[in-house]
Design brief:
Shape: rod-shaped
Distance between the termini: 89 Å
Helix content: over 70%
Strand content: under 5%
Order of helices and strands: HHHHHH
Largest sheet: none
Number of strands: 0
């Protein structure tokens, strides 16, 4: 009977060690998952910040190009060199969007909007409403790329219905 009394606690001790090891491994697994999720969230936030900066730069230059291009023809001729530089800056800003964008729709919308602005700078477009469609599509694509899968509230879209 003496040997039975000494063997009884041994299996219980082994079971306790196994349970503790299993709990420890499970805890490490859960911590690893949380870490991965946190890293993905940080990457997503960094991407959004980079893309937002590229979009804001593009829009700032686009606004300058539009203002310069849609002025009176005489004023546009006087500002020709400055306007050419602005158009060059616009294409560089669009390239930044190409690099930062996660969605092809945004790349295409930026290209089409920049193309229309360049046409306006060359005098091929003389009215602001011709630029609104490409601008609206660009803004919608930018929103969708910045917040993928996030639905806008009713009436929040810039796209005319």
């Amino acid at each position: 009977m003496g040997s039975r009394g000494t063997l009884g606690p041994a299996p219980l001790s082994l079971a306790g060690v196994a349970l503790g090891a299993g709990g420890s491994l499970f805890g490490q697994y859960m911590a690893s998952r949380a870490s991965t999720r946190q890293l993905e969230t940080q990457k997503s936030a960094a991407h959004r910040a980079e893309l937002k900066n590229a979009i804001l730069k593009f829009l700032s230059i686009a606004s300058q190009v539009e203002k310069a291009a849609l002025t009176r023809p005489a004023a546009r001729a006087a500002a020709g060199l400055a306007l050419d530089r602005l158009v060059d800056d616009l294409w560089l800003a669009r390239a930044e969007i190409d690099l930062a964008a996660g969605d092809e729709r945004l790349r295409g919308a930026a290209y089409r909007f920049a193309t229309r602005l360049a046409e306006a700078a060359r005098g091929e477009i003389a009215d602001a409403p011709a630029l609104r469609g490409p601008q609206v599509r660009f803004m919608d694509a930018a929103y969708d790329d910045l917040w993928p899968g996030r639905r806008r509230a009713s009436g929040d879209s810039l796209t005319p219905r």
